Amino acid sequence: MKVDQRYAWPLTVTEAIAIQEQLRNQVITEDQFQETIQYVAGVDMGFEANGTISRAAVAVLNFPDLQVIETTLAYRPTSFPYIPGFLSFREIPAVLDALEKVQTIPDIILCDGQGIAHPRRLGIASHLGLLLDLPTIGVAKSLLIGKHEELPETRGNWQPLIHRGEIIGAALRSRTGVKPVYVSSGHKVSLSTAINYVLRCTPKYRLPETTRVADKLASARLRK
DNA sequence: GCGACAG
DNA sequence: ATCTTGTCGC
């Protein structure tokens, strides 16, 4: 798919904050996509050579069957350090490279990380969704900000994630008896819809099949 | 000022 | 994220 790569990436945290503050108002947290979802994609990142090389993998699966349709891989020098709250500036460049190689344009992308469950409401899922103008959902393995009540052990239960009196996402039990995942709107997807799709993409394991496939492809262990 | 802190 | 073997539990 075509990806606009003319985007100017920041070199400092100060510049990054300015970009986040400017983009946060453009994020849409309501459903804004056609009802017929045919393809869902997942992205995964890996790093090599002491973190100097970024490796991005994209997996496109059909929906709701979740059969793998296509996968792509891309490398590029890492240009931004890992700083909590600024993950997108470190990972999105390589992700865009991998997405450029994709033939099948996904209807929704599930990202490894937060959507609006972010200090300035612009986690990696929201940022990527804005750049691509595609619906995105944030699915994180751990919490960045916010608090939530305990939730029942059985799959499907969830509790709202609260930050400064706002519901920014949900702690969702994607599998019975395991730690919850943190779901939030990325762009053009509401929270309830996001939860719905995450559950439909999580038939067996804690993480969505999309990210699991991408992870397998980019697994450092298997590449060694 | 002291912790917390996506991947 | 990454460094890494076996091990506990359903």
Automatic annotation (TrEMBL):
<dbReference type="Pfam" id="PF04493">
    <property type="entry name" value="Endonuclease_5"/>
</dbReference>
<keyword id="KW-0227">DNA damage</keyword>
<keyword id="KW-0255">Endonuclease</keyword>
<keyword id="KW-0460">Magnesium</keyword>
<comment type="function">
    <text>DNA repair enzyme involved in the repair of deaminated bases. Selectively cleaves double-stranded DNA at the second phosphodiester bond 3' to a deoxyinosine leaving behind the intact lesion on the nicked DNA.</text>
</comment>
<comment type="similarity">
    <text>Belongs to the endonuclease V family.</text>
</comment>
<keyword id="KW-0963">Cytoplasm</keyword>
<dbReference type="InterPro" id="IPR007581">
    <property type="entry name" value="Endonuclease-V"/>
</dbReference>
<feature type="site" description="Interaction with target DNA">
    <location>
        <position position="82"/>
    </location>
</feature>
<dbReference type="GO" id="GO:0006281">
    <property type="term" value="P:DNA repair"/>
</dbReference>
<keyword id="KW-0540">Nuclease</keyword>
<keyword id="KW-0234">DNA repair</keyword>
<keyword id="KW-0479">Metal-binding</keyword>
<dbReference type="GO" id="GO:0016891">
    <property type="term" value="F:RNA endonuclease activity producing 5'-phosphomonoesters, hydrolytic mechanism"/>
</dbReference>
<dbReference type="GO" id="GO:0000287">
    <property type="term" value="F:magnesium ion binding"/>
</dbReference>
<protein>
    <recommendedName>
        <fullName>Endonuclease V</fullName>
        <ecNumber>3.1.21.7</ecNumber>
    </recommendedName>
</protein>
<feature type="binding site">
    <location>
        <position position="44"/>
    </location>
    <ligand>
        <name>Mg(2+)</name>
    </ligand>
</feature>
<feature type="binding site">
    <location>
        <position position="112"/>
    </location>
    <ligand>
        <name>Mg(2+)</name>
    </ligand>
</feature>
<dbReference type="GO" id="GO:0005737">
    <property type="term" value="C:cytoplasm"/>
</dbReference>
<dbReference type="GO" id="GO:0043737">
    <property type="term" value="F:deoxyribonuclease V activity"/>
</dbReference>
<dbReference type="GO" id="GO:0003727">
    <property type="term" value="F:single-stranded RNA binding"/>
</dbReference>
<keyword id="KW-0378">Hydrolase</keyword>
